[in-house]
Amino acid sequence: MSLAFAGDVHFTGRTARLLNTPATAFGPIASVLAEADLTILNLETAVTTRGTPEPKTYRFRAPPATFEALRAAGIDAVSLANNHTLDYGQVGFADTLAAAERAEFPVFGAGRNAAEANAPWITTVRGTRIAVLGFSQIRSFASTWVATDTRPGMAMAWDVERAVAAVAAARLQADLVIVYNHWGKERDGCPTVIQQEFAGHLARAGADLIIGSHAHTLQGDGFLGSAYVAYGLGNFLWYGSSASTETGVLRLTVRGRSVLTQELVPAVVSGTGQPVVLTGASATKLTQRFAGLRACAGLADQPA
Fold first, then answer.
1. Number of domains in the chain
2. Domain of 8: which CATH number?
3. Cα angle, residue 110 at apex, residues 235 and 39 outer, rounded to 5°
4. What is the bridge-based pairing of β-strands 121-125 and 110-111?
5. What is the pTM of this model?
6. What's the pLDDT tens digit per position in 131-155?
7. What is the DSSP string of 115-163?
8. In-domain check, residue 302
């Protein structure tokens, strides 16, 4: 079974115009995304034309055509557990969930209450039942954006007990458990201690694959016991310039609960905001740099 993962995506700034033609919004890299049996990334925006902007510097929103573009690129589901899903308040968030439902596009990591936000999206791929969860470890607005029993919002990594319980429950429902986290220190290629600690909690609870984004740069991958971890996949389809334009599509071959092969298809965020696959010496350089990030990630080359 082939799985693909990518980092943060939104349609604002220079990428807003890409939704004029949703079928080609991601450009040629869509063929890489579509090759996999299952493709997942992080949707870093509210999907709404309404709402009250939150008091923060960066606020992202996009129209419902977002989900058409995601589907056209071969993306199967997205995490909403991040620090921009509620940029336009509860009204914008309600619109986001409604737009996903209308498009029949799977989302996870957020919901109308805590139970829904912490519940996995479950799908079956090539006979393997897969549970996918999402958590945000970003502190800003964490207390007001977290889903509660009576308030819509997202699943937060800060409630470690609840996150661990959610993963353990998913373990009982699925053959393969995937967790996609929004975490890390911006512009730092090495995971923080709290990232590493949370990854350990998830692995012990039964997570098989632990994927992440948020840092605006790549972070290392490898094995934590038997679990495979990719701490950060960087920006993917991105609105503006960033200190790092390095990105890629992480491709895994999985059998049962085991990762047999892992490969980053190296890419760079172009001037249009679209990721473009690298070739030749540039591709080799980025592939080698990504491999080198394992050293500070504290991850092993092989599963235990």
1. 1
2. 3.60.21.10
3. 50
4. unpaired
5. 0.98
6. 999 999 999 999 999 999 999 999 9
7. HHHTSPEEEEETTEEEEEEEEE---TTHHHHB--SSS-EE-BTT-HHHH
8. no
